[in-house]
Amino acid sequence: MRRRPRACARPVAAPALVGSAVVTVSFQAPADHVVADEPRSGARRRPLTRPGRSAPATVVHVASLVVGYAGILALLRGTWFRGDDFEFLANRVGPDPRLDLWTPHNEHWSTGPILVWRVLYDAFGMTSNLPYLAASVAAHVLAAHLLWRLMRRMGVSAWVATGLAAAFVVLGAGHENITWAF
Fold first, then answer.
1. 122 lies in which domain range?
2. Res 8: pLDDT
3. In terms of domains, do 116 and 59 share one?
4. What is the number of domains present in the chain?
């Protein structure tokens, strides 16, 4: 993007409806107005990132996601269900759910998590909390990866985005939501 000097700023004409007549209004962009370079015909867009420079940072990012996922699950391996987990298991997922998929949980739409928990309940029952935590932590790690992708798309350096996403994996502000699904 470049700044167009005042001498080169081109006036823009726009039709405006005044009463029953169409009037053409002409205005000129201010000198400090930023305009995009006009694309050349047949020109290819330049990628936002350079693959050669970001490859090591991408490998470190994926490793931080894997280590973060495994580390959080290892720290939580001895935990049990708590709080709203029992409401989900007793009223929405168990052998005879009293509430349907569309009833909100604490005024929150929870159809997706209810479906995931029904599949996990059918596969594992209530013998362990680990499968339920694995699904919750997987959603958190996915959010960390999407954060990394967003930062890269916005032009943040690969290493800065990797460091911030790695910090988010283990130090997210919602640390209770990582360990407590509902």
1. 51-179
2. 46
3. yes
4. 2
